[in-house]
Write a structure and sequence with these properties.
The complex is a heterodimer of chains A (182) and B (249). Chain A is of the alpha+beta class. Chain A is built from five helices and six strands, in the order αααββββββαα. A five-stranded mixed beta barrel of chain A has the order 1-3-4-6-5. The longest helix of chain B is centred in the C-terminal third of the chain and has 41 residues.
């Protein structure tokens, strides 16, 4: 019952058995996940789809950034919104056709995931999801970054948060401010 | 106070339920008080005073609940697995009881993490749920908690239940690195971590500070709840054993 002698022979034996079991289990799970990694990925990048084109009947997810200036929206005869835009991973771009309502966060420069199939006409999506990045910032910071010319949201994710202050720092204040004395 | 100190067995404080009860008694109330205070401050700060996100707008405030719940669900599971190890190797008398009381807390945190995440996903991504690696591995953690809750209570002999549940908790520990690194190993719909141990957080400090207060507040409150539950369970056992010792009428 006492913990004062932490490792008697039996306790050490049990400890090593459990550790060995855990390592084996971890190794097995690691190998399985590694073998399945192509199916675990949520989406394929445009360059992957270009180099290994899937069967036209296969439903796949395409993920990447919406190219700035590539978004064209229109309406069909029955007033369904239609959108055409290019998705890129920096190496290749694929044009996506989509009929339906785009999510609120959809914009040029945003990462998106489109579900659909890829054939000679391009990528026809049945569903489009917006994927936001890990950066959170107030509107004032976003506006200041854009005003300073350091970042345009249509061309990709914002700069590193640690650099915001220096990027958006106001112009140096005049030396002799009236009323600045203590 | 004086009556309990006289009956205090010697040894380290973790060695016996009696010492655990004695040592944790002064901790519970301050822990709960500070936790609830920070929680209140953090939530009011986050929900009313912190700025909205430039593109997600007000929905970003779900973060102040979602992130602490994700953290608590993982931290509770680490505790569960540690108790499992103590239970399997050292047959520690306290470990099984702490594991018994941690399970429902962790399951609640995991469930709240999934629910808030889903409520966030609809306005953000445009979907309630997808089977990407992060979301799926978090769901697996929730099921591990459910399995643990059922297993530890499924045996007539509590010790057998505790050992079976300890094995489950130890095996399930593999899910934790999968959750953590899922957003790096595979491409997912869920974004990568904004807060890392090594780098500066990828968010404005005006959002990070309330999030930190919320997280610490939830952690302390969770710890206080765990202590209260464990103490109640120990006192219940003591009351039962005293009742059994009474001579039959």
């Amino acid at each position: 019952m006492s913990v004062s002698r932490p490792f008697t022979r039996r306790k050490a034996g049990r400890f090593w058995i459990i550790l060995a079991c855990l390592l084996c289990l971890g190794g097995a799970v690691g190998l399985v996940l590694n073998a399945l990694s192509s199916t675990i990925v949520f989406f394929m990048a445009p360059s992957q789809i270009r180099t290994h084109p899937p069967a036209p009947t296969q439903t796949i997810r395409l993920g990447g950034m919406v190219v700035a200036g590539s978004l064209h929206t229109s309406h069909t005869a029955d007033n369904t919104p239609e959108a055409r835009f290019d998705v890129t991973d920096g190496q290749a771009a694929i044009t996506v056709q989509y009929r339906g309502i785009l999510p609120d966060l959809f914009r040029e420069g945003q990462s998106v995931v489109a579900l659909g199939h890829y054939d000679e006409h391009g990528f026809t999506a049945s569903e489009v999801l917006a994927k936001h990045d890990e950066t959170y910032m107030p509107r004032e910071v976003a506006d200041a970054l854009q005003k300073s010319g350091k970042w345009d949201p249509r061309f990709g994710p914002p700069p590193d948060a640690a650099s915001w202050n220096s990027m958006t720092a106001p112009q140096p204040a005049p030396q002799n401010r009236p009323g600045a004395a203590e | 106070m004086s009556s309990s100190t006289t009956a205090l067995p010697s040894g380290r404080w973790t060695d016996s339920p009696a010492r655990f009860l004695h040592v944790t008694r002064p901790i519970v109330f301050p822990c709960l008080f500070i936790g609830l205070t920070m929680l209140t401050i953090g939530l009011i700060w986050g929900l009313y005073f912190a700025p909205a996100d430039w593109q997600q707008g007000e929905t970003v405030r779900i973060m102040y609940l979602h992130v602490p719940m994700a953290w608590l669900a993982s931290a509770d599971y680490v505790l569960l697995a540690f108790c499992g190890l103590l239970c399997m190797v050292w047959r520690h008398p306290l470990a099984g009881i702490i594991a018994l009381e941690t399970g429902p807390l962790g399951a609640t945190a995991a469930a709240l993490c999934l629910v808030t995440g889903s409520l966030w996903g609809k306005p953000g991504w445009g979907t309630w749920w997808v089977w990407d690696a992060r979301l799926t591995s978090m769901l697996v953690l929730f099921f591990l908690y459910l399995g643990h809750i059922l297993t530890i209570r499924a045996f007539d002999d509590p010790m057998r239940g505790q050992r079976a549940a300890a094995l489950l908790a130890l095996a399930g520990v593999i899910d934790l690195p999968i959750i953590k690194f899922s957003v790096q190993w595979w491409n997912t719909l869920h974004q990568p971590d904004s807060i890392t141990l090594t780098g500066a957080p990828a968010m404005a400090m005006s959002m990070f500070h309330p999030l930190l207060v919320c997280t610490i507040g939830f952690t302390l409150t969770g710890l206080a709840l765990l202590l209260i539950r464990t103490r109640a369970a120990l006192l219940e056992r003591r009351a039962q054993s005293l009742a059994l010792r009474e001579p039959l009428p």
